[in-house]
């Protein structure tokens, strides 16, 4: 039976959010806040605006369990799409079921078949055998009892397949208990990463060692840890010098990747936040690989699956730090099944193509896709905005946007405009975009309630509606709070006073 357990999915409820109005004044009813981000502007040589050409391939752990005929037909399908990468599983529990007794048969077969088709092999080394698993947890899904023993196995793999396997991932989704039982442990994983990195490099110095291998989950007790928080702790535990790249699995079955900008903890926002952590920790030169991405046909129809995959293959390369993409997976286990795990394939179980197979072919044939909106944003080269962090996405149905390290750029009806990222974050929570340049510490938005956002590094970003805005004068300074509910009204604190607004009497300015 497959060693791969069911994937945990982020369950995000996307509810409509309206700006609450009280006689023209905004009362806070924001979207959930995204995790705090530490933003660092990059040196002026940044502002990279050209989409990268990334390798595209498949993640197909089922090849380990296939007959020779099925395995070869599967690799032929990969080649037919133009794929250049394949992610293969090397299960420790399958190779070294008994300590010091090795059966390399299936790994040899899959690596040989991939190499014969000139596919670049990425190997994920996972699955603890019973003799090597941590105490009181099941084999396969349990973490190793000893980082050293795991590293010894990695060294044997890297030595055996030197020149045949290009990159190694250290474990799989350690931020979930389903793969790192009994519970996610960033410190324990970092210990594993350090040991494996040194062993793999010792056996094959040319190999790329990929750390993280993180799932797009949210914090849920001892079951899952948000990948941003997990990565932050990895850096605190010294992971930086022990990975050549980071990998991430940005699944979200109900939302296309590029549609996640306004959704807290979406895979897109998790990607951006992890990139900011990488920059802050001196890892700006490293890529984020998407070693699993896919969409099951149970969450949408076949056309919808193709649209999700086409969106990802177009938008992921718009980020200059994007690494290779591996689509999960080649072929359905059982077409028509109600189990999402059975219907991730871009081919059906009878080997016929779904529309997603053509979507993969088309994107690979195009090279680095250049969407029309990306072409327009690539002309925005103001170095003060910093490096590109996000693809070009829809901030509203009619306004495109792109986040960079220091500012978010918007394509508005009146032209390109930018907001400091704290202002952009605040606006996003209300579903708003700017209508005026940011100047003198504030920026107006397209809200029917006349929302203005004030910001400085010292005061933070705060918003208020028309009733407060019309009474404000520069003598008050910048806002120090959002609207605070009062009896029949609201109050906003400023640097040099405050404004109250009452439904019956309107606004009153109090200078201090």
Automatic annotation (TrEMBL):
GO molecular function terms listed in the Swiss-Prot or TrEMBL record:
hydrolase activity, hydrolyzing O-glycosyl compounds
Which InterPro entries does this one have?
A: GH (IPR017853), Glyco_hydro_5 (IPR001547), Glycosyl_Hydrolase_39 (IPR051923)
Q: Does the keyword Transport apply?
A: no
Keyword line: Glycosidase, Hydrolase
Single GO biological process annotation from the record:
polysaccharide catabolic process
Q: Would I find rRNA processing among this entry's keywords?
A: no
Q: Where is the Glycoside hydrolase family domain?
A: 58-305
Q: Which domain of life is it from?
A: Bacteria
In Pfam terms, one family for this protein is: Cellulase
Q: To which protein family does this belong?
A: Belongs to the glycosyl hydrolase 5 (cellulase A) family.
| Name recorded for this polypeptide | Cellulase family glycosylhydrolase
What organism, scientifically named, is this protein from? Answer: Mycobacterium yunnanensis
Q: What is the lineage of its organism?
A: Bacteria, Bacillati, Actinomycetota, Actinomycetes, Mycobacteriales
């Amino acid at each position: 039976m497959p060693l791969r357990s069911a994937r945990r999915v982020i369950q995000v409820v996307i509810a409509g959010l309206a700006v609450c109005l009280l006689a023209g004044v905004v009362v806070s009813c924001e979207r959930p806040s995204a995790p705090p981000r530490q933003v660092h502007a990059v040196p002026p040589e940044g502002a990279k605006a050209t989409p990268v050409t990334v390798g595209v391939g498949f993640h197909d752990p089922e090849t380990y369990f296939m007959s020779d005929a099925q395995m070869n037909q599967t690799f032929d399908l990969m080649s037919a799409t133009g794929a250049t990468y394949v992610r293969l599983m090397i299960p420790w529990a399958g190779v070294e079921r008994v300590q010091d007794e090795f059966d390399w048969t299936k790994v040899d077969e899959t690596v040989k078949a991939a190499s014969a088709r000139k596919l670049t092999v990425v190997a994920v080394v996972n699955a603890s055998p019973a003799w090597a698993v941590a105490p009181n947890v099941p084999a396969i899904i349990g973490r190793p009892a000893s980082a050293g023993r795991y590293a010894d196995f990695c060294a044997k793999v890297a030595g055996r397949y030197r020149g045949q396997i290009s990159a190694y991932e250290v474990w799989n989704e350690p931020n979930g208990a389903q793969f790192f039982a009994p519970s996610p442990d960033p410190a324990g994983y970092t210990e594993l990463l350090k040991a494996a990195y040194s062993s793999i490099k010792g056996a094959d110095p040319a190999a790329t060692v990929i750390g993280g291998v993180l799932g797009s989950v949210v914090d849920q007790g001892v079951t899952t840890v948000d990948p941003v928080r997990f990565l932050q702790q990895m850096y605190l535990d010294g992971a930086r010098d022990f990975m050549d790249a980071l990998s991430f699995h940005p699944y979200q079955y109900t939302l296309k990747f590029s549609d996640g900008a306004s959704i807290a903890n979406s895979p897109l926002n998790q990607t951006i936040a992890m990139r900011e952590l990488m920059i802050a920790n001196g890892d700006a030169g490293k890529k984020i690989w998407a070693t699993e991405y896919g969409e099951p046909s149970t969450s949408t129809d076949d056309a919808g699956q193709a649209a999700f995959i086409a969106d990802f293959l177009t938008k992921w390369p718009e980020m200059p730090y994007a690494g290779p993409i591996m689509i999960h997976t080649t072929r359905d286990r059982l077409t028509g099944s109600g189990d999402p795990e059975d219907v991730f394939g871009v081919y059906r179980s009878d080997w016929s193509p779904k529309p997603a197979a053509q979507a993969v072919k088309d994107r690979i044939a195009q090279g680095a896709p250049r969407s029309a909106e990306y072409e327009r944003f690539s002309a925005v080269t103001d170095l003060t905005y910093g490096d590109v962090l996000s693809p070009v996405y829809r901030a509203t149905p009619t306004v495109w946007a792109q986040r960079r390290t220091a500012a978010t750029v918007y394509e508005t009806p009146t032209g390109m405009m930018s907001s400091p990222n704290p202002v952009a974050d605040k606006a996003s929570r209300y579903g708003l975009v700017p209508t005026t340049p940011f100047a003198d510490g504030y920026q107006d938005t397209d809200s029917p309630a006349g929302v203005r956002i004030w910001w400085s590094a010292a005061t933070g970003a705060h918003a208020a509606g028309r009733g407060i805005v019309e009474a404000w004068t520069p003598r008050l300074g910048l806002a120090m709070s959002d609207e605070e509910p009062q009896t029949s009204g609201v109050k906003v604190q400023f640097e040099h006073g405050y404004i109250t607004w009452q439904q019956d009497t309107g606004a009153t300015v109090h200078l201090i």
